[in-house]
Structure formats: structure tokens, C-alpha cells
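Deliverable D4.2, example record:
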Amino acid sequence: MIRKAFVAIVAITSFSALQAQSTQGHTGADLIVFNAKISTGNRAQPEATALAVKNGRIYSVGSDADILGLKSAETKVIDAHSRRLIPGIIDAHIHVLNDLAYNYNVRWDGVPTLRQALTMLHEQAGRTPDGQWVKVIGGWSPYQFKENRFPTLAELRKAVPNRPMIVQYAYNRAYLNKQALDVLGVGTDRFPKVPGTEIEKDSRGNPTGVIYGNTWLFVALEMAVPQPTFDEEVSSLVSSIHGLNRFGVTSIVDNGSRWAYPKAQARVAVLARDNRLNVRMPFVDLQLGNGGPVNMVDLELEAITKTAPISPGQNLYPTLPHGHEYRGAGEVLSAEVHDHENFDRPAIIIDPEKMRRFVEEDVKRLVERRIPFRMHASYNENISPFLDALEKVNETTPLDGLRWSLEHAETISPENIARVRKLGGGIALDDKMALHADGFIKTYGLAKALQTPRLRMLIDSGIPLAMTTDGFRASSYNPWVGISWMVSGKSVSGSEALAKDNRLTRAEALKLFTAGGAWFMNAESEAGTIAPGYLADFAVLDRDYFTVPEDQIKSVSSVLTVMNGKVVFGDQDYSGLSPQLPATLPTWSPVKHFGVYYQGK
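Output generated by the structure prediction step:
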């Protein structure tokens, strides 16, 4: 009996070993990249020239000779030609799922002159069919243009004479031509009545076409224009992810959209099913309801416990680590305490008592159920009462390691930084000051702008910290614009926007977009660094970020982006490795003609 048992064990062990070998495939590396200048982000091995990938993870980092020795007949080998290689960029606060009409929009991101921007609009007006709009929805700044100004209504109307047109600047203002004014009924009862809206009028009391407002106005306007089909939404998702890959982005946290869970997830599922989800996309859920006052926490609990039950950390795409995980609620948890952010206007200050009630009644329920949450809070005047109430909640319902964060926190004080750290929270900053600092300076003055945000103090505090883009509307989705601002201290206009003692080294700035973002994915032990065992996410750059002049940093892009050991973007020498994308929908899409970014297909 003992002999029979022994033989059985040996047989099972041998079968398991054979099975493991067959699952592993070949014995060498799947992918080797050599002849690179690798900035690993790993303090134990800060630099190397080559890395090897196996089963979607990095399994060796070292010299060319050592790593090439891991090659087998099946290994794909890529020569980096002495280019800089960095960990894949993690954007821990972006709104990809909010832009499922991405392919309907002319992107002005990176366009250097207003003249070129207006030419793009005019060209698009010629190809946009009847019944559709010509749209520019965020991602740009007047200060990026050589002319350093907004377009005039006369210029816009000349550019788009024959179709309804909306040009939206962040969540601050929109420009409409005559056709758009008529369709929306601006100045009549048909136009959405959203608090904080200001309709500019001429001397006769007629709307000029310029409208000022906040987030909710522009959400309402977006729902009033023609909507894409399901297939066009999937195509838009492909385009926006391709744009991210172009800059070396391999992971994002989608931070809420007007398409609440589980509706938007059906679009992601199409890409996941076909193995075309080329970015890791954990998501935070925002439940806006169907109009009118709602309790967003009630709606969130209903969605995740009854409508489509899901647990925090659950991955809807389990074959891709951190593929599409539910990471909790936010960034807006209540419309009543949302302080927006519009640097062209004074801060919106929330009634402290209203903030207290919201935290003690609604945020407390998230803490009780161990649901991670993110809180949009731009201004220190609103952060203080939020932390007052959260500290009180923590006394009776301990946070006890629950991941939560403040989003944006542009003007947070030293005292409140310390309080966030004590409560175990993180801060996801954003780089909107890179694009909009000139407006901030007009509203608040240069002295305040130079310390907004307190980058040096936040870095030194040791708090979990990331820099994000908050793309695609409030700011550009190009992370290198923000990295340039953090290093050089200059906004896109070239104006000084950060004090010298509030700027970061190139290594510090990059870390906020790599390892810093990993904490917000709950992946800091396996993402954002190039080291054995970490996810095989990295980018080979078109120029050496660490040595190019400061004024070139904003122009950095990737020539080779690898996510999960798979090439998801290739350019120049590596264009032949880039996966073929399906045809862009609709056929008249501005993205099809202009690309996902200025001069970038």
C-alpha cells in the first residue's frame, strides 16, 4: 500500500511538472529589451541597460550580457538604440469613461497657435455631416497658443459657419455659434437652469454665445448634443487609450464619469473580450442619477450591492492584473459639497455645517462597509471642515487602513497635509496649473500661485502622493506637460508658475507619475518600478528625459510602450511592432483626420 501511494505521488508530481512546463511554454524570456538607458525607480538597482520579461512580469534587470543570456529561440528581442527607458506612466486621476464621445471632438491639446486651432475647426466643419456638431471639449488652454489669448466669437463663427459649434474651455466657459444657440434655446426656458450659470449678453440683451458655468452646466450641455452609438463609444475608447499609450501611459485610474457603473463597463468589456484593452484601468464610480437632487452614496450602494454586485478590489478583467478593478466611490460623493475648480473665478466655499453632515452621515457609511473613497476638494477652506468631520468619524468608526484620498487639493495647508497623513489618506494632485496658472494668477496673485500646490512640502511629508492629469476636459491628458511644469516651474505660456524652492527634480517629478500612482491602484508592490516580479509596464522615450533641455520636456513622447509584456504602441523604429487598430468610427471623426494629439496619429 505504501509503495502504491508513493508511485501515485510521483506520478501526480511528474504530471504537475509537465503541466507547469506546458503552461510556461518555452524556458527563455518572452521579451528582452537591451541597449537601453533604464531608469528603474528601484533604489537598490537605479540603472541598468537591459530587462527580461516573462508571463507579463519583469523577471530580470541588468547588463546587456546578463539579460541576453536569457534568450531562447522564441524570445522577442528589441534594441532600444541607447534610448531612455522608464517605468510605465500611471495616471491616478483621469476620466477616460467620461469621454465616450471622444471621436466626435476636435482635440486642441498641444496645438501651438490659435491660427492652427481655428483652421482645424474650419476643416472639420467641412466634413461634419448634417445633424452633427463641431466640438472642442476641453484639454486646451488659451495660454498654450503663441497668440496667448482666447478665440473671439467672430473667429469661431467664421471657422464654423454651417454647423452647430461648441468650444469648451475646461469646465469654465463655452463658446457657441448662432446655430448652437438656436438648438439649445439659450436665453429661453429650454436652456438648462443650472446654478452658477452666467449667459453673456450684448447691449440689446441677446446672448452673445459665451456662457460661463461650472461642472454641472457642461455635463448638461454634453447630454444635449448628438450622442454616439455603442460602436462609436467603443471606438472612442480605443482612440483615447491609444493617445495615452503614445505618451507611455500603461495604467490609469478612471475617476468617475457621467456613465455610472455598470453602464460604462459594457464598453470596456468589448475590448477586454478581444484582448484589446491596452491599459490597466481600475475605476472609481460616480453615481449622478437621472437629474435632480440625489444621494450619491445611496445610489452607489444600490449599484454595487443590488444592480450589479461587486466588491472593492474585484477585477472585471481577471486575465489582466488590475485590468478593470472596482476601487470604490468618488471623486464626487455629493453634489452639494462639490467645490468644482475654476481658477478664473474665486473659490467656491462650502458651508462647513453642510460638509460636516455629509461626512458624518454619508462618508461614514462607506467607512462602515470598507468601501474606499475619493473626495474632490480643491480648496483648503473646504478641506479643513472635511477633515474635522472625518477625524470625528474615525473616533467611532475607524478608518483603520481603508484607502481614501483627497483629489486635487491645490491649496492644501501644511496643517491639513499632516492631518491627512495621520488619517492614512493619500493626495492625488493634478497638473492643471501647468495649463491654467495664468488664470489663477489673475484671480489670486503670483505669490499664491508660486506655492500652488505645495509640491516640495508634500514630497517631503512622505504622504502617499501622485501627480495626475485630470484629463480629458479639465486639462490635457499629456502627462509630460505636467512633468515639465513641476521641473521648470513654467506654465504652458512660459510664465513662472512655481517658486524655485517649490520645484522638483526630474526623478521626483517622474516618480509622482509612476510609483506614486501605484498606491492609488493598491499596487505599490508590483507597479510603477522596473524590478524583478513587477508588472512588465514600461516605455522607451523619443528623447532622453533626464538630459534634454527643460523646454523640451513637454514634447517628450514614447516610441515604444509595453503593457503586461505586450507592445501596445510603437513609433519611429518600432512602428512595425505597434498593434493594428480598427478603423476609427464614425468615418467623419476629427480623430481620424487629426489624430489623438497634435501631429500624433
